Amino acid sequence: MNATQTEAETCTTRHRALLGDARDAALPDGSVDLVVTSPPYPMVEMWDGPFRGMSPAVARALDAEDGPAAFEAMHQELDRVWQRCAAALRPGGFLCVNIGDAVRTIGGQFALYPNHARIHSGARAAGLTALPDVLWRKPTNAPNKFMGSGMLPAGAYVTYEHEYILIFRKGDKRAFSGKARALRQRSAYFWEERNRWFSDLWEGLPGTPQRLPHAAARARSAAFPFALPYRLICMYSAQGDTVWDPFLGTGTTTLAAAAAGRHSVGTEHSAAMLEVVGATLSRLPQVGLYSVRRRLAEHRRFVAERLALGKPVKHHNPLYRFPVVTRQETRLLLPWPVELTEADGGWAVTHLLDPRDPGGGDPDERQLSLLDP
Ligand SMILES: C[S@@+](CC[C@H](N)C(=O)[O-])C[C@H]1O[C@@H](n2cnc3c(N)ncnc32)[C@H](O)[C@@H]1O
């Protein structure tokens, strides 16, 4: 910083990763603004072990090769988590669940197990309101992706290459006043981001190759890509809010919350997995910097292309000194995480609230790939 520059404002967010069972998570009622999570997927074999551990009814049904009974018993355990989410959320808070349906042969019967539909029932029974959801198109590279009788009718099955992001709200729309209103305005997203993010079909989110330090954790991680929780956090919470991931895994939600200037708490029942969270979060300075730079660079490119087409960009964001399409974007300010420290058994992150471009211009492909290593 040179002598003519003024000291930038900063803020601090706090992040905790707790060892424990999501079904019994003791978060105070109303203490969370947003839940973003991806549970173990019922009827997907890699999660049979954890579900067996949660309930003897699951173990009995699997041993008896009774698919429908196992499916229902597994969801009854997840229902307890949706009830915890409903209690922990503040009025107007959101629950976003990434889930895939399962296809499986059990007891000689090949069938679809519609996890997304069953979670809908569970979350609604917990008192949450279902809102329009997102279909995440997630192409598979599996060599055996075509299932069934090949080129001969009528015994082949449709290839499943999508998952869901289910969205629920606790009660009515949240009201913002005073300081919360200012934070909400600072948390605006760009008009062109709104158009992409609030589409009911998400394509082109990269999957996450599993490059984790701990082999056991790697085998069981099923991490979602950084962009998934980051988007949801920007869409459904404001800076300074608290995000909870009851099934924290490798801590992708923690990283995304910290990159977006939100507080976070995560619960995870595997100690091995919890060990990975520190390593995930250590990427924050780079990931935070690149997400800010990418969003600013993409907006500048969008403005240039729109103006070149002779379309208006009527408003002005005086902080970044660039045009924006709507008045709602004129106070938008991206917090830039610059320092990560361990504090009180968790982490503290210092964010610069500085509209000066973090520098470095448009991040290149190699740098962007660090967002989803
Ligand atoms: C689909 S993974 C979540 C991956 C995570 N989104 C990420 O990006 O790494 C589900 C996680 O839930 C954890 N888990 C399973 N049962 C649990 C329970 N009852 N309470 C808390 N965590 C649990 C698993 O160990 C696993 O890490």
Structure explained in plain terms:
The model is unreliable at 1-5 (pLDDT under 50). The longest helix is centred in the C-terminal third of the chain and has 25 residues, at 284-308. The protein has a single domain, classed as 3-Layer(aba) Sandwich (Rossmann fold), CATH 3.40.50. The protein is α/β, with parallel strands linked by helices. The strands form 4 sheets. Strands 10-6-9-3-2-11-12-1-16-15 form a 10-stranded mixed β-sheet, sandwiched between helices. It has helices at 48-54, 56-63, 67-88, 115-125, 179-186, 191-197, 215-220, 227-236, 252-259, 271-281, 284-308, 365-369; strands spanning 9-19, 32-37, 89-99, 102-106, 109-113, 129-137, 147-148, 156-157, 162-169, 201-202, 242-245, 263-268, 315-317, 322-324, 336-343, 346-353. Helix 2 packs antiparallel against helix 3, helix 8 packs across helix 9 and helix 9 (252-259) packs across helix 11. Strand 11, helix 9 (252-259) and strand 12 (263-268) form a beta-alpha-beta unit. Helix content is 34%, strand content 25%. It binds S-adenosylmethionine. S-adenosylmethionine binds next to helix 1 and strand 12. S-adenosylmethionine is lined by residues 21-23, 38-40, 50, 54, 220-224, 247, 249-250, 252, 267-270, 273.
